[in-house]
Amino acid sequence: MTAELATIIDFIRYGASRFSAAGLTFGHSYDNAIDEATHLVLQSLHLPHDLSPAYGQARLTAEERKSVLALFERRVNERTPVAYLTGKAWFAGLEFLSDRRALVPRSPIAELIQAGFQPWLDDHEVARALDLCTGSGCIGIAMAAHNPDWQVDLIDISEPALALARENITYQDLGDRVRAIASDLFAAVEGERYDLIVSNPPYVTEAEFDALPAEYGHEPKLGLTAGSDGLDFALRILREAPDHLTEDGVLIVEVGESERALVELLPEVPFNWVEFNVGQMGVFVIDRADLVEYGDLIRSVAKR
Predict the structure, then answer these.
(1) Residue 77 to residues 30, 104, 221: CA-CA distances in angstroms?
(2) How far apart are CA 115 and CA 273, in angstroms?
(3) Residues 197 and 284 sit within 8 Å (Cβ to Cβ)
(4) Cα–Cα dist 80/57, whole Å
(5) DSSP 8-state assignment for residue 239
(6) Cα–Cα distance measured from residue 65 to residue 276, given in angstroms and rounded to the nearest whole number
């Protein structure tokens, strides 16, 4: 049957059909079979992601056909995320190296980065920013790439993830403005202050993790789980962030489905929940002033 496949378009269509028929889960950079198949085929052929449709009728060589079909089979049989199969992922308009040392780059925060964090930063001046729980480094590196005047620190507790983040810093040629630091949240940056702290920490509950599709089993559990309600890290960040924000500093944190649990724990705290193009996705924005005002309440909850 596959002998009838010849062109780039043929293989993208075939891959999408195989993925859909196999009931794969799409949630690692792409949300549908066609986009995943397109990424896999183009990456396998070493072609740009924005390849002109005019090349869709280009024919694959025998060796290229074999390589693409082998990746299709791995995606279906192993349930391995496409980014791990190709070693590349796109985030906030940038290409990143991706492998099992860190989660596949993905977050609605990409939309905020590309929008200049407006209206949330308003007239706030940013000189220094922090990407906390950085993983592959995608958020912090994208912040630096889209804001040439910013100095950005990346923090993670995982040495393998930091090694990948450093490779991505080099890949994006941002070594003069981005540094990666091994730290358990803020422990290694005592006395450091930032105008903007952005974090996509682990926020999956243990129960949710046990029920995740097989694709997520290829990612490091350390980067996903955060206790019984998914808030183990978010609450620590809320408690400690005021000591690391400048006077007018802003904190942005993604908590995903744990949003409900956070609001139930801290109903008085004025979290601003971001509306994205596809709706609300569990990302809040809060000023340092509000973190200080509600500090006692946050600390009392975070001690649980």
Answers:
(1) 19, 19, 21
(2) 16
(3) no
(4) 28
(5) H
(6) 39
Closest listed residue to residue 109, CA positions, set 84, 135, 88, 86: 135
The arrangement of strands across the sheet holding 128-132 comes to 178-182, 151-156, 128-132, 194-199, 245-254, 279-287, 272-276
* Residue 25: strand pairing partners: none
Long-range contacts: 289-294, Cβ < 8 Å, 24+?
291/238, 291/241, 291/242, 291/245, 291/251, 292/242, 294/266, 294/268, 294/269, 294/270
- Phi and psi torsions of 295, nearest 5°: -60, -45
Give pTM, 2 decimals: 0.95
Contact 68, 9 (CB under 8 A): no
Rounded Cα distance between 250 and 290, Å, is 10
The per-residue pLDDT for range 217-262, each reduced to its tens digit, is 999 999 999 999 999 999 999 999 999 999 999 999 999 999 999 9
CB 158 within 8 A of CB 222: yes
Q: How far is CA 199 from CA 85, 137, 152, in A?
A: 26, 11, 13
- The residues with which 167 forms a beta bridge, in sequence order, are none
pLDDT in tens, 46-83: 998 888 989 999 999 999 999 999 999 999 999 999 99
Peptide bond into 119 cis (omega under 30): yes
Task: Tell me the sheet residues that pair with 253.
Answer: 199, 284
Q: How far apart are CA 17 and CA 26, in angstroms?
A: 14
* pLDDT tens digit sequence for 140-176: 999 999 999 999 999 999 999 999 999 999 999 999 9
Q: Please state the separation of Cα 230 from the chain's center in Å.
A: 17
